[in-house]
Amino acid sequence: MRFISYTNGSEEGIAIRSEGGYRGLLVSALGGDLPHFLRDDDALGELAETLGSAPEFALSDVRLLPPVVRPGKILCIGLNYRDHSAESGFEPPSYPAVFARFANSLVAHGEPLVRPDASDLLDYECELAVIIGKGGRHLREDEALGAVAGYSLFNDGSVRDFQIRSDQWTMGKTFDRTGAFGPELVTRDELPEGARGLRIRTVLNGQTMQEADTADMIFGVARLVEILSEAMTLDPGDVIVTGTPGGVGALRTPQVWLRPGDECTIEIERIGSLTNTVVQETSVLQQA
After folding, report:
1. Range of the domain at 150
2. Do the beta carbons of residue 175 and residue 162 sit within 8 Å?
3. One domain for residues 96 and 197
4. Is residue 134 located within the same domain as residue 50?
5. CB half-sphere exposure, 121, CA atoms < 13 A
6. Dihedral of the alpha carbons of 167, 151, 137, 140, in degrees to the nearest 10
7. CB-CB contact of 258 with 124 (8 Å)
8. What whole-number distance in Å separates Cα of residue 131 and Cα of residue 115?
9. Do 210 and 199 contact (CB within 8 A), yes or no?
């Protein structure tokens, strides 16, 4: 099953992909947003059944939102691919680097990524996003994947100079509208266990900049769920952003930075593609 969140301009809705497009209903009619239905497989199945007979529409008739519009937690993993760890000058970590993003940083598929006026050093990062379902605390690795509802795509846009101003990365990772998320939540039953063995890449203005396999992650999805749930309860709709492979713009020679007018696409095999153009913050403020 493949779900999207959307707005018709005044209200939010949820839709499921159908043969002819998407079938959706407003959250007010459904009685809850998508995380409300992620709490267990039965609730998600009932949502799919309800939406299966809902009115069909084209994406051009609505505006896409991130699949989870306001995640309670966005937990990001650094240095989780060996090639990226090596290009960054680090040994592969024995314990994952964890940092936070916040919902203010999110944009949907097709919406602009915003290069902030405070910095020209906006970078791309293709990543697999894990969307928590029933969640829990103290989840063992052998049961952890049962806590996952599905997967999506993420562009962990990073403002590099702010990222390295301190030992903590959060400031460089949560500028408004720098992280793209979506377009669909793809349920775990449609993918290999733990979404392993899927090709992942970044395409910038038609040129492949990053390319790897999700099997190359140092800490797989189940292990990450186990580690994170040791410290905190994972709730329905929480998002784990699992790290990026090598090839980021900051570590290329010459360096490559996202600029206004660029088109950046994140692709993951069997999940889909996430495309955003880049705009300057000043232009967004002028339009507001």
Report:
1. 74-287
2. yes
3. yes
4. no
5. 14
6. -100
7. yes
8. 26
9. no
